[in-house]
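Usage example:
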Amino acid sequence: MASMRDIKRRKGSITSTQQITKAMKLVSTVKLQHAKEKADSTKPYFDCMYETITGVLSKAGNINHPYLCAGKSKKKAILVITSNKGLAGGINSNIVKTVVNSGIPKEDAVIFAAGRKGKDALARAGYKIAADYSDAMNNVIFNDAADMGRDLLDGFARDEFGEIYLVYTRFKNTVSQSPVMMKLLPVEIETESGNTTDDLTLMNFEPEPEEALQLIIPKYIDSLIYGGLIESVASEHGARMQAMDSATSNAQDMIDDLTLKYNRARQATITQEITEIVAGASAIS
Amino acid sequence: MEDGKVFQLEVVTPMRYFYTGPVTMVEFTTTEGDIGVLPGHIPLTCIAAPGILRIHTEKEIHEAALMDGIVRIMPDGVTILAEACEWPDEIDIVRANEAKIRAERRLKKGSDNVNLTRAELALKRSLMRIELASHNKK
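Running the assembly step on the lines above writes:
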């Protein structure tokens, strides 16, 4: 059995770790609330944006726009959104796994990284990092998303890559986040809902749908990126909150266990001392 | 509030619900020119260009700076998806002035085409901000 002093020292170290994880949990709870509020306030924008883009595309029919068909280049750009800081459970490694298992060969992938963790992990895995927007993850503003969108579209226009993907963590709720990979370009809109096309047939466009697409699609991409950034930040804090919560309770379990061991050890010492005294006394008499 | 005289206007930016409420008319700039929308307009989707957004309610007229965005007009309501939208008192005139000077410099230098368009847009935005802010001060 470990000595009393060893147990006490170990307990002290776990207690201070627990204090840190508890504080980190509180911090991420607050940050999560902010991030959630931000995500909620951006929601109507995306819903409207999605409706508009579906409307335009269903109206535009089979027009041949560069944004609607894949480029000639075999390369594929992937915008990978992770966090800058670790200790957030598995969200960053899940994102990296999603990229690695996406079926896009390493040589064909051009990584645009937002978030230091994803950038480092993918660089280590041998991917080519074309750009790094990690600073944007500290405080997400729409202009950052617009910058990324512009860089991606410029590259697409120069035919540096034929397809653009976005990988981010979708925020379902506080306890559940999942990595998602979606195709940004060429734009793919499911047109299975037949009933919506009826009221859209009345929609007019100014300028013409083809020109409108040229202007709307970049905005659509920007808003998707922005949504991905906002949701990833919320997910990061949610995941960290959860990770820190379980770390705190694990620490508590360990402390309880050690306390029991400590008390047993103490009791054993006392019993031993008494036995020794009694044995000594009976030896004298 | 009679039917047919007002319609629902929603101005949404990625940051917030900028404006929502019944209005009698709304005026703004599109890529094709200035337009004013009254109730019962035919369905139309257009692209907003930087310009002044005038919201006419039954009592008063509000003005705001509208940056690029997408406008969806339906007979019973208008939705403006703006990248940014600001009330006059939110405009930072010093910053707008700086942006104007920067854009002018870039235009004078004149590099490739893309940068020129960008600078032109930036200049337009700053000019519009300055105009709106100074004209609301009086």
